Amino acid sequence: MRLSQGATGLLLIAPAVALLSCLTLYPVFHGIWLSFYAKHSFFPGQQFIGLANYAFLLHDPDFWSSLWRGVIYSVSTITLQIGVGVAAALVLNEVFPARNLVRGIVLFPYMIPTVVAVILWKWLLNNQFGLVNYGLVELGLAEENISWMGHSYIMVSLILISVWQFFPFVVLAVLARLQTIPQELYEAAKVDGAGAVRRFLHVTLPQLASVLFVVILLRSIWMFTKFDTVWLITQGGGAEKYIRTLPVYAYLRTFHFYEAGTGAAIAVVMFAILAASTTVYFYLFRTDERL
Amino acid sequence: MSWWATYPGTRKLAVIVSAVLLLAFTAFPFFWMVTTAFKAPSEIFVYPPYFFPKHFTFENIARLFDQTRFLTYFRNSVFVSSMTVLVTLTIATPGAYSLTRFRFLGREKIAAVILFTYMFAPIMIIIPFYVLIRFFGIANTHLALILSYTAFCLPFSLWMLRTFFQSIPLDLEEAALTDGADRLRAILHVLLPMALPGIIATGIFTFILAWNDYIFVRILITSDELKTLSVGIADLYNSSVIDWGMIMSGGMLIIVPVVVVFAYIQRFLVSGWGAGGVKG
Question: Which chain B residue has the Cα nearest residue A236?
Fold first, then answer.
C-alpha cells in the first residue's frame, strides 16, 4: 500500500505533535483547570473552589511584592543585557588577534549549567574571602567588606549574575546580524561625513531593529519566568525573601506549602501578564518586515 | 571625521582594550573557579588571596569523589542527556523533514504552534506537569526526566532542523528519484549526509539543555541515587560548612563535557545559524 503525500507528511510529524500536545500543551490547560481547585501537591483528590485561589492572590502581599520584584529584575537585567550585549557584539565584529577564540569564550557563560554560574559568583562575591570585596577594599572603593548575599545587596548580586549568564544570547543574535550589514552603507555614510556615533545611530541601529525586536521579546519572556538562577542563589534560605520573584513564589506555594492550586494560579497569572505585554509589544513595535 | 581617524592606530587600540575587558569579564570567573579547585583549603581562605595555587593539589577533587556521589550523578547526567538526544532526534528529524518537504492541511498551523511552545519556560507548566507525572506513576524515574527534556527540546530541534532542511536544494533529491531511487533511499543517501552537520549541532544543543537542567530534576527526582549533576552540586551547599574547594572542583568537572561539545557548535553559532537553538 502506498500512502498519499499528505498522509505520509502527517505520519512523520505525528509523534512530535503527540508528545508536545501531551507534555506541553495539555499541562497548560490542566494548569488553568487546576487553578480553580484546592489541591494538595502530593495527595490525590481536589476540591473545586472557583476563583478562590485568585482572590487569595489579590489580597496576598507576598504575591504583589513578588510581582514587583520580578518586574524590577526583568527590566533591569534586560536593559543591561541589551546594553552589554550590543556593545560586546560591536567589539567582536571588529578585526583583532584570536577573534574566534575570544568570541567562543564570550558566548560560553550562556552554555554552562546555571548552578555553575551561581557557585562561581557566590565564591567571587563571598563576604569574607571573595575576590570582589578584596578588590573593592584594596582600590578604596569600599570601606569594608560588602555583604553581597545580605538583604540590601542580594538583588544587585542577582542582577549581576543574570546579566553575566545571559548577555551572550544578545551577542549571539546581534553578531550574526552585524555580519550581514552591507559594507556599502557605511561607505556611503562616511562619504556623507557621518562620524562613528552617527554611523551607529543611522546605519547600524536601524539594521539591528528587527533582531532586537525578537531578542527583547524572548529575553523578556525568559527573564520574567526565570527560576533556576534566582532560586539557586539562596535555595530558599538567607535573604531569599528579597529576591523572591513570581516563578520562585509559584514554586514555594506548590512545593513548600503544598498548595498546587495556588501555585498553578500564579503560573496562570504569569501567562496572562506575558500574553498581555506581548500583545502590547507587538502592537507598538511590530512592522511587517520584522516578523 | 571621527576622532580616531585623525590618530591612526587609536581605533585598533580601543578595539583591543575593549576585547580584553570583555574577555576578563567573561573568562575571569572561570579562571578563579579552576585555580580555587586546585588550591589546598589552607590556601583558599587566605587574605590577601593569590591567583595561582602555591602547592598544586588534587585534594579537592579526591574529596569530591570520596565524600559525595559525584560519580553516580555524573553517570546519571550522561545517561539522561544522551537518551534525550537520541529520542529528540528520532522524533524531530522525520518531523522537520515532513514540515519542509510535504504539503498537508494544517502544516503551517502546526509549525506556528511549535514556534509558540518554544517560548515556554519550565516554570509555566511544571506544576500541572508534576501532577501529571505523578498520576502516571513515573515520578522519581529517569524516564520522567527524558520525557520532559524531549518535550522541552522538541520545539527548537524541529525549528533548527527545518531551517537546515530548507537550505538543502530539492533538486538533489529529485535527481535521485528520477534515477530510479525510491524516496527512502533518496533520503538516506542524498539528504541525510548533507544534513548531518545540522543534525549533530541540533543534538548538541539538546544535550547541553538536558545536561544543564536544574528545575525538572529538583521537582521530579527525590532519590539521591537518581539525581543528576546540577542538583547534586547544588545540594553540596546545604551542608553547614561550605567546602569551596570541593564545590569549585565539582563546577569545573560539570562543564568539561560542555566545553568539548561547544567547540564543535561554536562555528555554527558565530555565523548565526542555529542562534535559535539555545534558550534559557
Answer: B238
Map out the domains of chain B with their CATH numbers: 3-47+54-59 (no CATH), 60-277 (1.10.3720.10)
**Confidence band of A213 (pLDDT split at 50, 70, 90):** very high
B279 confidence band (pLDDT: 50, 70, 90): low
For residues B116 and B121, what is the distance between their CA atoms, to the nearest angstrom?
A: 11
Contact status of A260 with chain B (Cβ, < 8 Å): yes
Work out the average pLDDT over A176-185: 87
Give the whole-angstrom CA distance, residue A162 versus residue A74: 10
pLDDT digits (tens, 9 = 90+) for A236-271: 888 999 999 999 999 999 999 999 999 999 999 999
B12 at interface of A, judged by CB pairs closer than 8 A: yes
Task: Tell me which chain A residues have a C-beta less than 8 angstroms from the C-beta of B102.
Answer: 5-6, 8-9, 12
To probe the interface with A, which of B87, B124, B150 has the most A CB atoms within 10 Å? B124
ipTM of the complex: 0.90
pLDDT in tens, B168-186: 888 877 777 777 777 778 8
Task: Return the pLDDT at A289.
Answer: 52
Residue B120: list chain A partners with CB under 8 A.
24
Best B30, B34, B123 member to test A by mutation, with max A CBs in 10 Å, is: B123
Least CB–CB distance from A88: residue in B22, B49, B214: B22
Is pLDDT at A1 greater than 70 in this prediction? Answer: no
**H-state helical runs in B167-228:** 170-178, 183-186, 192-212, 215-220
CATH architecture label of A72-285: Orthogonal Bundle (1.10)
Nearest of A173, A161, A151 to residue A73 by alpha carbon: A161
* A contacts of B6 (beta carbons < 8 Å): none
> A–B: how many Cβ contacts below 8 A?
278
Assess A106–B contact: CB distance below 8 Å, yes or no: yes
Give the residue on A whose Cα is nearest the Cα of B97.
A12
Minimum Cα–Cα distance from A102: chain B residue:
B23
pLDDT higher than threshold 80 for residue A201: yes
At a CB cut-off of 8 Å and minimum separation 6, what does A181 contact?
A203, A204, A207
pLDDT digits (tens, 9 = 90+) for A61-114: 999 999 999 999 999 999 999 999 999 999 999 989 888 899 999 999 999 999
Instruction: Tell me how far CA of residue A54 lies from CA of A59, A63, A243, B18, in angstroms.
Output: 9, 11, 23, 50
* Sign of the dihedral through C-alpha A7, A13, A16, A20: negative
